[in-house]
Write the structure tokens for this entry.
Amino acid sequence: MFYQFADDVTTVDVESIDSHYVTAGYITVSEFEKLYEQFGFAASTFEAVKSDNMYFHSRFGVEVYDDYCFTKMAVINALDANGERDVVALYIKKNLMIVVDVKDKDCSTRDKFLASLSKYSPINITLEKLIYAFLDNLTNKDNKVIEDKGFEITKLEEIVLHGNAGDHFNLDLLQMKKELLVMRNYYEQLIDIGEALEDNENEVFDENYLRYISNFTKKTERLKDDVELLRGSVVHLQDAYQSSIDLKTNHTMQIFTVVSTIFFPLTLIVGWYGMNFKYMPELGWKYGYVFVIVLSVVVVAVLAIIGKKKKWIGKK
């Protein structure tokens, strides 16, 4: 479907498109196959559109031709960064923007495209404003998602500090780290597109309105910087979690060491009186058994008192 901006936004057929007015289209790959030659787009770009490329940094990048630009991009939902990605191709010509739906099962990218059509008044619309509106809609709720992830990381830090981290805590951190990596790559892709369009090599854009695309690039750079900060926080959180595990392990080993130290003399006493020498006075003494018991208790008590004073016992 194609939409043309004049006094109002109206739907038009391909044959009725007036190049003097800004026009936007959202079409499927099968529809585009029948139309791309009419718009003068290279067959190689159509082959690129047909390939089911799911990577953010594709080998196509932004291709600049004499009178149009072409790029293909993956689109994510920041609320489910590891979920299925949409894929669209973007063609930009003088007063014309075409979005080709390569993969958009839930129609979320189409909805963002339609929302961008009403961002500016039809009378004041320009190609640069339209592109800005569409690209900006792809990330319009990401600030809130990033902020929520920041609060989530803060809560996880409190869990670590209070020693309440569960068995799957590290797996949860790795999952969050993966989501943030996906988001960072996504923003890098959008920044690359914005910077390439800003260069305006084929002079498709009006220099007076390029600031809109520049504003989008700057906003996306801030999103990327925020994600990088969160990724750094997750790394520090992993270190803190590992340190807490090491501390618990060290505390456990300390307890075993103290217990072994206190009861080691009993092993010595057992070994001493377990020797089968012929002349051992205590063996014939009627209080010998009681004496060894009292001796063992006294030794353990003395070592326990020394350990308490030296803070070997009760130390955390």
